[in-house]
Structures are given as structure tokens and as C-alpha cells.
Design goal:
By secondary structure, the protein is α/β, with parallel strands linked by helices. Helix content is 42%, strand content 11%. The strands form two sheets. A five-stranded mixed sheet has the order 3-4-5-6-7, with helices on both faces. A two-stranded parallel ribbon has the order 1-2. The longest helix is centred in the middle third of the chain and has 25 residues, at 106-130.
Amino acid sequence: MTFHPDALPNLTGKVGYYTVARLAQHGAHVYMCARSPTKGTAAIAGIKSLYPQAHITLLEMDHLSLSTVLSAATLFLSKEAVLHGLINNAGIMATPFEMTTDGYEAQWQTNHLAHWVFTSHVLPLMLSTSRTLPSGSVRIVNLSSSGHFSAPKGGINLTDTSLPSGSGMARYSQSKLANVLPAKTLHKLYGPGSPSSKAGDGEIWTAAVHPGLVESQLSVRAEFPTVLKMIFVVYGALGGRIDADKGSWTSAFCAASPEMKEEQSGTYFQRIAEAGWQSGMAKDMALAANLEEWTGEEMKKEGWVE
């Protein structure tokens, strides 16, 4: 599909840097989450220098601390009565082994658990928002990666999600698979044709997105195998890398484009706005159900959701 974010409709009244910029460019009120208020404020200033009319609110959140995720969700819900779109964008890649103060491996918590917790808290608001609007007005987008193909045998080790003896890339791949599967679970529960939609309880379209090999800060702390580094270098030399703005286009498409159709909800997309190749594990709805059950029980046990 040929898609450009300039084709987005006017998003006035609707709630990655360039993803925020592209949505705000078209009138959306965007809440941008950031760990550092200083850096977040600077990012907003940069976007407003491009689009002076941009309406962006900073929401402080650190995925390495689930208490800040809960606080951010609570603050947002105290301020807003509607939510049309959620893009779970934050992530870290192939970082050295690290356990968070919450007791989880850093990539697993940053890339999966924190997104799951925040989504769970705003989900009722998104469902209520959708009830009086046309189908496709409310959407959730999870940023994933083609790296999910390299997830460990069995996909996700729910016995020990920290994978202490695995590589940083193995932990990353597992967490990226855990971005695809919840998008499919949410589609099954709330997407077009779901029990929720048929009962009039709300409809949410979902998507998982592989943005492509993007020029960004994602891999600054990454520990890549030598062979993989060489592949990235060659792929980049052949023109495979894209700039950060273009890397945001598929997310913008999935979050707000009227060109997205209801039969595309639940799809794994790759650049630019095309259905992507995905692993067999990414299509495994039994694994998706196991992940949802494990995550729900774990987060309830620790008090992060009710």
C-alpha cells in the first residue's frame, strides 16, 4: 500500500517522537509519555517548532518502574473522558541482563509488562469511547519487530521470563513476540465481530507493527552478535535503513488512517502499512492465551491491576 501521513484526516478532538508529531500535525491531542520531564519537554518544543498548532501533553512514565506506569494511567484517567488511540511504542533492544526493582528482566518489563499494565487501565475508557462512534474510531497499536522470529523455542518461557542464561537478543525477541500476541488477543476480545462488538459493549481495532530498520536510538545499548552486526551494516549500505520519520508512518496509519479496513484489525504490519511476514509462534492463539493468563495473574498478584 502507498501511504503517507499527509493523507491522515483532521484528528482534532482525538487523543516515538515522529509518531506524536505526525498525529499532532493533524490536530490530535496527543499525550506523549517520557521518563525524563526535561527531555520530554524538549521533544515537545521540537515538535511545536515544526507544527506550532500541535496539542501535546507530557505524561511522565518510566517502564522500569511499574508504579510510575500505574500513576500515569491514573493521572490520565483523571483528566480525560475519552481515548481514541493508544500506541505502545516504548522499547529497549538487546540490552545487558538487568533485573528491575519490580523483579522482572528489564526488556520483559519495558517491552511487555509496562504496556500491558497501562493498556489494562485505559481499556475500559477506550471501550466506552467507541460505543457512540463509527467502527474503527478507537484503536490500539503495539510496536513489535521482525526480531520476534528469533524468540526462544516455544516462543515465551513463562516458567522464567527473565531468560538469565540467554542472550540479550533472545530476551528482546521474546519480548517482541509478547507485543504481537496481545494485539491479537485484544482483537479477538474487542475487534470487529468480537463478542464485545456484537453486544454493543465497544469495539477496538488493533495492530502490531514492525516499523523497519529505523535510524534511532533503540540499539544504543544493544549487545548484538557479530554476524547480526554485519547483516545490519550490509542491509543499511543497500538502502534498507529508513529515517525515524518514515519509521513512524505505519504506526500513524494503524492508529488513525481511514484507509485501514476492519478486516485488517489484528494484523501484523510492516513498512509501509503492508501486512507483514510473521512467525508461526506469532499466529499461535493458544500461546497468546497462555501469555494473557500468565500476565494477568502476575500483575494482579503484584497489585498492578485489580
